[in-house]
């Protein structure tokens, strides 16, 4: 099993078709077929179920897909890390961000930091919080920036900005909740949406547990949305309630959804890495830039 085979396998799994994967990779369909056949024969497993012109993963294929995606990301980040040394004597930094940080915070901050003479240039990477911690500890990236609280003693953590998960609902639902709703009123709504499987979901579920909200009473079993944009597209219709980050909602305007601050859940974002001096300088610069465009940000100290 080599890296080229893993890349071909991931492409085929994601497209569900050797033909579409070949078009995406710029190689022939026969080359993909031969590569996958050799991979299956080498390990005596079947990775794909062939159904007409389409493909579906077997149990072995599903097990390989998750690991193959992780390996490819690790290799690509390692290549980026090595290539930062091309900029000697002032090497670029790689900061790996969770999806929300990458989508809603860091691009404008990094753009504003380009003229700073006391900081290296910054390259951004994106990934799940659990992977980012591993990348930082292995030295694959220089710093991480996620919603995950401090938890690894070899690393230094700096709080750089704060957001909040806020409930938004249509006017009719807001009236039903009343002017000063209790947390238990969430269960009376019967359906609350949020971004599932993202880095903010554990924070949200922990808040529900602390407030004794029964997740099964408010979660729809067949409506699992994978992005805040998808959640917003539903709540903007005015019929359902949903949790969105305040930072995300600032970029939109809707008269159909109303904020309900009584159910706010604070979210802290942490920069972390092994380099104390550079970390203090970078965290201070990020915090300062964040405060320019985010009224919810609070100044925070290193921990």
Describe the structure.
The protein is of the alpha/beta class and 303 residues long. The protein has 3 domains: 3-72, Arc Repressor Mutant, subunit A, CATH 1.10.10.10; 76-158 and 272-293, Periplasmic binding protein-like II (D-Maltodextrin-Binding Protein, domain 2, 3-Layer(aba) Sandwich), CATH 3.40.190; 163-267, Periplasmic binding protein-like II (D-Maltodextrin-Binding Protein, domain 2). The protein contains 14 helices and 9 strands. The protein has helices at residues 3-15, 18-25, 29-43, 59-83, 99-104, 106-113, 129-138, 171-177, 186-189, 201-210, 215-218, 228-235, 246-249, 276-293; strands at 48-51, 54-57, 93-97, 122-126, 143-146, 156-169, 192-193, 241-245, 258-273. A 7-stranded mixed beta sheet has the order 4-3-5-9-6-8-7, with helices on both faces. It has a two-stranded antiparallel ribbon with strand order 1-2. The two termini are 43 Å apart. The model is unreliable at 295-303 (pLDDT under 50).
Quick summary:
This protein has 303 residues and is an alpha/beta fold. The protein has 14 helices and nine strands.
Features of the shown structure:
D-Maltodextrin-Binding Protein, domain 2, alpha/beta, 14 helices, disordered C terminus
